């Protein structure tokens, strides 16, 4: 089984994922743009696949009633997005060690995208969240972003 590793900039949070990761979903919602400074590129895994081996600096921010975001409290790296009551966690693709072997799948919340960039990569685009049947593998039991 494949294992990928990742971390924040300062190494205060380290993690590994055992098994397949979802293809990259690009989220253009206002909250993702504010937390990242642009838009988010995130993969995902089920909770049992994720091991956080160094979590001293990991903090969670309840960004809405429906989700929380994980980040390093020392360097500020944006690392995770987890839906309330969900069985998965989204992982910011930039936090994963190379090579990731990941590829893009779709853009979501494009109605909220910034006016300073264009989307011309040919991937499917959804004005809001994608329908559950449009989400790429591996299948997860809850909607994700």
Notable traits:
about 140 residues, mainly beta, Metal Binding Protein, Guanine Nucleotide Exchange Factor, Chain A, seven-stranded mixed beta sheet, 1 helix, globular, disordered C terminus
Structure, explained:
With 145 residues, the protein is mainly β. It has one domain (3-126): Metal Binding Protein, Guanine Nucleotide Exchange Factor, Chain A (Beta Complex), CATH 2.170.150. Helix content is 5%, strand content 38%. The strands form 2 sheets. Strands 6-7-8-9-4-3-10 form a 7-stranded mixed β-sheet. Strands 1-2-5 form a 3-stranded antiparallel β-sheet, with no helix packed on it. The relative contact order is 0.26.
Distance between the termini: 24 Å
What's the CATH first level? Mainly Beta
Task: Count all strands and give the number.
Answer: 10
Overall mean pLDDT? 91
Strand content: 35-45%
What count of helical segments does DSSP give? Answer: 1
Poorly predicted ranges: 139-145
Helix content: under 10%
The secondary-structure element order is: EEEHEEEEEEE
How is the CATH topology named? Metal Binding Protein, Guanine Nucleotide Exchange Factor, Chain A
The shape, in one word, is globular
Q: Give Rg in angstroms.
A: 14 Å
**Major sheet: order of its strands?**
6-7-8-9-4-3-10
Q: How many domains would you count in the coordinates?
A: 1
What about the largest sheet? 7 strands, mixed
**CATH architecture title:** Beta Complex
Label the structural class.
mainly beta
Oligomer: single chain
